[in-house]
């Protein structure tokens, strides 16, 4: 730890580092390496131990747009695939609305009166989670903040037979603070508590209302302007219109951070912690009709380390973002097929960058690596040794308490004899579980039913993709060695902004499910999803 922690944990300077905004699209400064100078190790091992289920949930998405100069049809194009937990029924549903001045189509969720990913006759839009740092936590001395807080004990109604009892929780004290700051029941040093603030607590109706009018937009410029007024944190929107314009806009009340956030939870006074200065609407990450002819986001950082503004350390590793951009630049002009291939790309991008440095010293791993290279690191259903590498890499990351960036730098600087020996031992361990077994046999998704009823659970199916592939195969390594694929694209959309626009898409599963489905049915949406097929959706009549 110490000053060198940034070298182990940050993606700065790695070959896969990719930002949403490019040179000329953000303010520049040349600061010292604040990431190193401001490191402060947390005085306790795990301050958020009892919040683990919330803070460790990793869900991402992809979206991108290209201008007419980069499409075979000569019109702007958009793609979007939000990544959520795989479940039945489908998280999203398609809606088509026609009424008054409005006619729009897209993906929505029950109870939410918006289309988060879709289009009207003139403009289309797609969304990803921005992962901007819009929340702060700090250790604040109890004597500094408790004098400003109102202690209270919540009351809970409990039904006993036909009688309702009004019970007061007396075994735990809660606190209300006037500055929209929350006390967290997290571990803290003696005489300190963890306080939290979130920019969403500062929202007014005016910050949210523009969200419900996005579908009335007349152009990318109009939608871009409307999104600037949406301060609900924090999302990435890309958009394309029938006039060939493309754009990108982030939403949310975004704290102004002119220095990179330090590592660890910091000790602060209440007065210092309660102050927040937000970026104005024009300063939030944004670009309109860039000369490069495309914009893509994949939960990666907005600004590089040299920017005058910083978005925090909550971003997802930019492997997907790197690969999407690589594939967008690989072809001068794109079509529906090339967009679909990008959405469904299963190259194991982390292994592509770090496998040589980690495994090439061992003869057994070296032979396996040659096979993987010939397959272009693709986590396809028939891959014969993808599982061996994923098994070993998960063990290394866990045992060495590392990130992919840290492993890359460790391997580049030279592994110790002990580290090399452990990697060699992992070969025989991986073989015991995965020898002779394909990726499809070991990488499975069961699409659990929302009801959690045992009689609604179904047999798992083989799925493609891996942790950092564009088509994600994010999953947990179970005790039996199976990789439980539980997060992926919850729907896919590809839109060509012809007049009227042409729409292709697929929901993962069905909107309703009152009987057990057969996920193995070759005609089902689940198998279409595995095969990366899209349905033509006749949205608009001429």
Task: Describe the protein.
By secondary structure, the protein is of the alpha+beta class. Among the domains are: 135-199, no CATH class; 349-469, no CATH class. The protein is 24% helix and 23% strand. It has 16 helices and 25 strands. The strands form five sheets. Strands 1, 2, 18, 19, 20, 21, 22, 23, 24 and 25 form a ten-stranded mixed β-sheet that branches. β14 and β15 (246-250) form a beta hairpin. α10 runs antiparallel to α11 (363-374) and α10 (349-359) runs parallel beside α13. It starts with a helix and ends in a 5-residue tail after the last strand. Mean pLDDT is 90; it is low at 31-45 and 47-58.
Write a compact overview of the structure shown:
The protein has 542 residues and is α+β, with helices and mostly antiparallel strands. The strands form five sheets. Strands 1, 2, 18, 19, 20, 21, 22, 23, 24 and 25 form a ten-stranded mixed beta sheet that branches. A seven-stranded antiparallel beta sheet has the order 3-4-5-6-14-15-17, covered by helices on one side. A four-stranded mixed beta sheet has the order 12-13-7-16. Helix 10 packs antiparallel against helix 11, helix 10 (349-359) packs parallel to helix 13 (404-413) and helix 12 (386-399) crosses helix 14 (417-434).
Class inferred from helices and paired strands: alpha+beta
Mean pLDDT: 90
Shape: globular
Helical content class: 10-25%
Question: Strands, helices and their partners?
Answer:
Elements: H1 5-9, H2 34-37, H3 52-55, E1 61-66, E2 77-85, E3 93-99, E4 102-108, E5 117-120, E6 123-129, E7 135-141, H4 142-145, E8 150-152, E9 155-160, E10 163-168, E11 174-176, E12 182-184, E13 192-198, H5 205-208, H6 220-228, E14 235-241, E15 246-250, E16 266-267, H7 270-273, E17 286-288, E18 294-297, H8 319-330, H9 336-343, H10 349-359, H11 363-374, H12 386-399, H13 404-413, H14 417-434, H15 439-442, E19 443-445, E20 461-462, E21 474-477, E22 483-489, E23 491-496, E24 502-507, H16 525-531, E25 535-537
Parallel strand pairs: 7-16, 19-22
Antiparallel strand pairs: 1-2, 1-18, 2-22, 2-23, 3-4, 4-5, 5-6, 6-14, 7-13, 8-11, 9-10, 12-13, 14-15, 15-17, 19-20, 21-22, 23-24, 24-25
Helix pairs in contact: 10-11, 10-13, 12-14
